[in-house]
Amino acid sequence: MTTPSMFDPPEYQKLMRSIRAHFPGLRASMQASDEVTNAHVDHEDEAIAEALKVNILGDVGAQEIADALKRGVTGSPQTGSPAASANANADAVPESFDSCHTEDDGERAWAILENAGGSQVPASVVRAMAAYMTRSYVQIGAGYHMSTKGAITVDMAHRFVARLLNAEQTGRIILGSSASQLIYMLADCLRDTLEPGDEVVFAEAAHESNVTPWLALSRHHGIVLRNWEMDTTTMETCPVENLTPLLNSRTRVVIFPQVSNLLGTVVDVAAITKHIRARAPAAHVIVDGVAYAPHRVVDVKAWDVDYYVLSTYKVYGPHMGALYGKESAMQELQGLNHYFIPSNVPYKFEIGGSSHEGCAGLLGLIPYLKFLAKTAQCKKVEGPRGGWRDTTLDISRAEIVAAFQLMTHIERHLTRHLLKGLARLAERGLVVIGPAVDLASDAAVDARIPTVAFVSTVPNCWPSIIVRACHEKKVAIRSGHMYSWRMCEALDIDRSLGVCRVSLSHYNTTEEVDRFLAVLEKVLSEKHA
């Protein structure tokens, strides 16, 4: 008797319904039709299911999910805790899981395939933020009960992000409004450690936020900027052979993206960091993980980077950014907060403080990640329990890893399905931008995330035309340069037109991909005719 694959049609539908049920912003378009269950679902090797021991839902039911939410951001729903306050009406909890209803007009729901710009958030995040704002929305540090609860929430959010990044033993976390803001802040802090003639290396393939903060240092402080060019032939975004000539004894900063937000290819952070350490030992290694962190587990300890930045609103959380700094690297910096504030982390670096309700929302990710971990492991995962006074995080590093491993397996299936569909449209004039991928190889598929940029060679079939056609059919994608201005310039892409970008997340479905491909095929055919 063979073990059913997690991507067999019935099991796949169960898996996706259980995941999508957590996201109130997703109006499910999963249809129990022949086109979903038969025609468009590729079958994965049964070894995947065996490796994950996937019994899809296993013992995870709606009541357990509801109970996980009731436990809230820090433990069991004791009287007076934020979690208990937000979930006082238990009957209301299942409503947050109803992903099977349509919009008010009765039409098919939107397929959100523009997740690189920002992800959907689980209901647990929404509830955690609402609970904080209704029960603990006061200034922290005043010493009274509610203020102390707020302070613990903020502290635990920093600790949770540290665990998320595997940074608890190596460094500290700073929270801000976005990754771009945090890179600007970091560049400003590093300014006092740099001297005229010191060099900063930036990757041509990066988001412009990796570059602009250093331009002012170049103009006003004599810092030399070095452009780490991509390989426009192989489409490798951060080739080591192009980096080596740029490294020397004056190199003080090397900043590069772990994943291009256009091409979706993953670079080997550990190998690049080791290469930099050997040739420019005085350099700070800064990694932009914004496009990587929503899809794969982050491990700053293993990679040995000095700084790592991400956007939490792209990792299923509130609109914030997070910056990891290695302890030894941060000791060189003076924070930008008021001169009389002690030089402690993170307060000295969080001007005006972090978003308190955002911190609650970050902790609201915990029940969802635990759900994914339990689904992957097909068993109950028990963590420490307690009320809001318990400062022990209710999720282990192993659970975080398991959750992201499940995302990786789901997204491998989606990536393969998407790239196969786009390849079929090559004869209609569609060109995928980026290196070719061996779709038969799991390792090759895993070397990229499900973010794909493409253009059409059909006359007058501009990216904006394709995007408009998709939007008319309630398929959300976008066009533009996505702030990868220098990459577009290197690839001779008209920045005023840009590219089309489709970007998936683990909660997307093959049915949504097929809707997108159908619209794309139609518009290409019409323009081609």
Describe the structure.
The protein has 529 residues and is an alpha/beta fold. It has helices at residues 9-20, 34-39, 46-52, 62-71, 82-86, 123-135, 145-164, 179-190, 212-221, 240-243, 269-279, 300-303, 327-330, 356-363, 365-377, 397-424, 442-446, 463-472, 485-490, 510-528; strands spanning 111-112, 171-176, 199-203, 224-228, 251-257, 284-288, 307-311, 321-326, 430-433, 451-456, 475-476, 478-480, 499-503. The strands form 3 sheets. Strands 2-8-7-6-5-3-4 form a 7-stranded mixed sheet, with helices on both faces. The protein has a 4-stranded antiparallel sheet with strand order 9-10-13-12, with helices on one face. It has a two-stranded parallel sheet with strand order 1-11. It starts with 8 loop residues before the first helix and ends with a helix.
